[in-house]
Amino acid sequence: MAFKKNRKSIRREAPVPVDCIFCKTKKDPDYKNFQDLSIFISDRAKIVGKKRSGICSKHQRRLANAIKRARHLGLLPYTPAI
Hints:
- By secondary structure, the chain is an all-alpha fold.
- The chain is 35% helix and 0% strand.
- The chain is built from four helices and no strands.
- The longest helix has 16 residues, at 57-72.
- It starts with 20 loop residues before the first helix and ends in a 10-residue tail after the last helix.
C-alpha cells in the first residue's frame, strides 16, 4: 500500500531586492525620527522583517532597537490603533 504525502501549498511572496535605504543614505535609524520608523511597522504594530522591508542585517538590528526605544518613550504604539 503506497501512501501519498500531503504537500501543503506554500504561498511565497515576491522577494524584495536588498537595497538598504540606510546604506544608500549613509544614515542609521534613529528613534527621534519616528515618522520614518513608522514605515517599518505593520498595521498590527509589529516590526517588519528584513526580507519584506529590504534592509540589510546590520541596519535591521539597529532599526529594531530604535523602534523599541521610540515605543518606550511613547512615540510609537505597542498595539495597533483602533
